[in-house]
Each structure stands twice: as C-alpha cells, then as structure tokens.
Design brief:
The chain is an all-alpha fold and 117 residues long. The chain has a single domain (3-115), classed as Up-down Bundle (Four Helix Bundle (Hemerythrin (Met), subunit A)). Helices cover 70% and strands 0% of the residues. It has six helices and no strands. It has helices at residues 3-30, 32-41, 49-57, 60-78, 93-98, 106-115. The protein binds zinc ion (ZN). Zinc ion is lined by residues 84, 86-87, 89, 104-105, 107-108.
Amino acid sequence: MNETKLASFRAKLEESRFALIGGVQEKYKSKKDDFNEQVADIADDAVQSYDRQLMMGLGEKELRKLKLVEEAIKKINTGQYGKCLECEELIPEVRLTVIPYTPYCVDCLETIEKKIP
Ligand SMILES: [Zn+2]
C-alpha cells in the first residue's frame, strides 16, 4: 500500500478513535460528580483511571471497536497494516475503506464468526 493511501487510512482511524474517546469525555464533563462517585465504587486499583473512564463510558461494542482502531493505528506504524491476522493475506482495500479497523479478511472473519457459538 502506498504512503498516500496509508495516510488516509490513518486519518480515518484517528478520527474514529477521537470520536470514541471524545464522546466519553464529553459525556462526563457535564456530570463530573457522578463520575467520581462511580470511580470510588470500583475496587480494582490496577486499572488506570483513564481506562476506567473509558470502560464506563463506552459500551462493550464501542470498547472492542476502540481496541481494533488502536491496533490498526499501531499496525500502520509498524508497516503491518492491511494484512489479515489469520491468513496473513492482504485485506482488499475496498474492505478497508468500509471498515478501516478490521483485522481480518472477509473469508477469515466468516470462519471466526462460525466458531463463536
Ligand atoms: Zn484472512
């Protein structure tokens, strides 16, 4: 994949990341007191407060998406972007255009989804 395309995928990914994280920050700005109370209820001190904020503000689905987005950005940085995690074939750009954070090609994704009961 050439630099221009990579750069445009990176921009898209960073936009999604910002939208996911920014939404949470926006949500808690207005009810900060509520948020601090909720944080106090959580026993697990190992988790960074930033992560807590994200976990509480994001649904499971969004959290999973955020992780995929961050992994995809990491892969752009290491030059691994666009490669299927499962079969290591290149994921078609058309697919990446639709879902830039996808870690799998369509074939592998179907196989994986079939395995989930
Ligand atoms: Zn694959």
